[in-house]
Each structure stands twice: as C-alpha cells, then as structure tokens.
Amino acid sequence: MLNLLAAAGDRPVFEDGDRVVSAAVMSAMIRRCAAGLRARGIGPRDGVLFQVGVHPEAFAGILAAFTVGARVACVRADQVAEVLPGACAVLIDEAALAELAGHPDDGAGLVAAGRPGDYARVIYTSGSTGTPKGCCQTYAAMTAGWAAHPNRWPPAVRALAARLDRYLVFGSLTSQVMLEYGVLTLAAGGTLVAAHPPAFPEAFAKHRATASVITVGRLHQLVRDQRARPADLSTLRALMVSGSPLDPGRLAEAIDVLGPVIFHGYGQTETGMISMVTPDEFPAALDTVGRPAVRVEVRDGEVYARTPAQASSYWNDPAGSAEVFLDGWVRTRDLGTLGADGYLRLTGRARDVIFVHAELVHAGPIERLLAAHPDVAEAYVVARPDDETGEAPHAFVVPAAGRRPDPRELRELVTGPGRPRTVTVIDRVPVAPSGKPDKDALRRLGQKTPL
C-alpha cells in the first residue's frame, strides 16, 4: 500500500466533504504520523488502539502504525474499556491523532518495519453472537492478503474492483470488511469517499458513490425505502452485502428494486472473505454465497476455511483459540453444503442454537421458513429461558410491504421442538453498532403479540 500511494502522485485517494486528498498528500501525512509514533517510542510489537472516525487522518494514522510495525486495533467507543490495557496499551483518539498528523516529518521515509511473525492487527468481532473477540493477524498473514495485489484477486473480486470508482466509507474504520474493501478500492484506482449525512439511500446521490458495504438488515430497509420513496441511485454499481446469509427471495427482491448491483459476500473477521457471488451469477446462484475463493471443507455439515490471510488466534483466549483455530484451518461454526456445481450454500449457524428439552434446535432453518412467507420481509429467532423446556425459541418478524402477518399462522408453519413459543411483529429489527441484527435487544424486547 505504501508503494501504491508513492506511485499514484496526484491521483485522488480520499474525499472528505469538500476536501480531496491526493496519494502524494496521503503519503506525506503517513510520514508525519509515523514520525509522531516513533517520537512517542512506538515501534514493533507495541500495541496501538485507535478510536477515531472516518477521515483522511484516520486512514493515514492506521497505515502509519502498520509502517512502524505496531500491533494495531480499532474499536468502537463501547469496546475501549474491554480492550485497554490488554491488547493495546496506547490509545489514539481524535486529539492524539491530530498531534500525530501535525508532527514534523523526521526524514526516515516510509519503510515497513513490521516483522512477519509479530501480530499486525487485533481485529474485534462484532459480538453479535457473544462477547467480542480479538482476532490476531500476523504481519505475514496481512502481507499474504489479496486486497492490495491485483494479481491475487479472485474472479469475483476482479469483477467487483471494476466498479469501485467511488467507495462510500461510513461509521468507522474498525470493520474488517470496510478496511479490506477500502484497500481494494485504492489498488483498483478508485477513491475512498467519507459518508456524511444524509444516510442511505440519499448518501449515494449526494456523494455520487458507485459502491459501498451494506448489512442484510440495512439492505432490507434500503429496499423498503426505495419502494416507498425512490432516491437517485443512478451512480450505484456495487453493494457488497455482508454479515449474515441473505434469503434467496429477499435477494431477488433487492435485485428487482436496485438492479444488478448486489455482490453477496461470505466471510468472517477470523478469515476475511471466503466466497462471493456476483451479479452476473444471478438468478442461478440466488441460494448461494458464491464459489469459494479460498480452501473450504464441509465436515459433518460445518464449514471450515483456510486462507492465507486468516487470523491465527484470539487475543488472550487460549480456550477459544483451541476451539476455532485447528491445524491451520478456521472452524467457522457455520453450517453449509458445497455442491457439485462448486457453490457454497449456508444453512445455519452451529452457534445460533436453542436447547429445547435438551434437544438442539438451530435458529437458521426456522428463520428461513418464516422469511419465506409472503407476508414476512425478515425473521429472527432467539432463545429465552423457559421453565418447561429449559429454553424456548421466540420469533420476531418484520412485515413485507403492505402486508400484515398473522402470528398464529406463522407459528403453525413450524413443527416439532422448533415451533416458536411466541411470534412478535416488529416494525424494524434493532441493529447493533456493527450494523448486524441485535439478538440481545430482541431477547429484551417486550412481547407485542404473545401467543
């Protein structure tokens, strides 16, 4: 990435409102930030924690920390107390970042000081299925990644890269997906564009964005908003959908409303991208997450992945590491099948389970059954303690446009121990700061239509 920026000269690489930063200016900013970090005594193996927004200085500061060989983590405000002073001892907030960006260039140049076996990043998971975990990626693994190297791009990524002229970046740079596709954008000759109000869908028109990342829940909301109040999405060429499997029917609806712009990716913080399906593969691949771009095995119904850039452990969690990182493979804890056509299909999460009378019930199949009903746009199932069964499933559904789901009818669709104890109709699913459905919030939600 340092070499790419050094060679790009006056090419715009970051746009923040009226401010346009060229590659040359970004390189100079990285040099100053790196000098500031070295002046603080920060070098290889030192932990640096960033709590910053989306702007050129934030991007430069993070690259500068990699340049000096530090161990870098980026977190949301609600995660700082959990991370300090463990994985990273030095906090770089907006005030500290401003000092780094204003530090004089020490003339040392931009030479990557990271050592292959050292941890380069501690990337925190969203916590959507439990406590956030710090995924440790070494400098060797980060170097082996595909994003900055066009000659390593899988076919699906190559198709995506051609559409990344103006990549809309929002929220923060804490996300593995947001940063990975940001690096891909720069390697493809595009520009990172910081999102400012308004939010989706008007942001695409305001910023003339051609691409962005979107979670499944927000995609559903975007489709509904476009049906009700269409915005100008004429510049949009790629929406990378991530975070959870996308129901084939809802995917078809999104394509119908938004056009051939959906890239449905599958990956994890632990692995990076595993597979991706492109617009050219629809409708044949609607029920898949594409052909794997890395090594994948399905063992007893569970997906295992092996990627050059994967994490190697969880920070300070040997028990969790031993469960997930196995002989060079990552146990995704997702259920799936790998078909003779080469496509990977996800069927649920091994972790998203409910124990009913000690019988294991997976939430995923129940959610897909409910979501297939024409009156339902989204369906989510959570476990709650139950005096009779130990745990019981409870379902929450978002109505399809113009529809009124009948909770009793929906409940009767499910047979056996997976039948929801209650079905609740909600206007919108609550989302966690990561943008994923917040199942803990659903568990706390009062029953509007108890059965």
Question: Helix and strand layout, with pairings?
Answer:
Elements: H1 2-8, E1 12-16, E2 19-22, H2 23-39, E3 47-50, H3 56-67, E4 71-74, H4 80-83, E5 90-92, H5 94-101, E6 119-124, E7 134-138, H6 139-143, H7 155-161, E8 166-169, H8 176-187, E9 191-194, H9 202-207, E10 211-215, H10 216-228, E11 238-242, H11 248-258, E12 262-268, E13 272-277, E14 291-292, E15 295-299, E16 302-306, E17 313-314, H12 318-324, E18 325-326, E19 329-338, E20 344-349, E21 353-356, E22 359-362, H13 363-371, E23 376-386, E24 390-399, H14 407-413, E25 422-425, H15 439-444
Parallel strand pairs: 1-9, 3-4, 3-5, 8-9, 8-10, 10-11, 11-12, 24-25
Antiparallel strand pairs: 1-2, 6-7, 7-17, 12-13, 13-14, 15-16, 16-19, 18-19, 19-20, 21-22, 23-24
Helix pairs in contact: 1-2, 2-3, 2-5, 3-5, 10-11
Mean pLDDT: 90
What count of domains describes the coordinates? 3
Counted by DSSP, the helix tally is 15
Oligomer: single chain
Query: What is the molecular shape?
Result: globular
How much strand? Answer: 25-35%
The CATH topology annotation of the largest domain reads as: Rossmann fold
Helix content: 25-40%
The major β-sheet equals: 9 strands, mixed
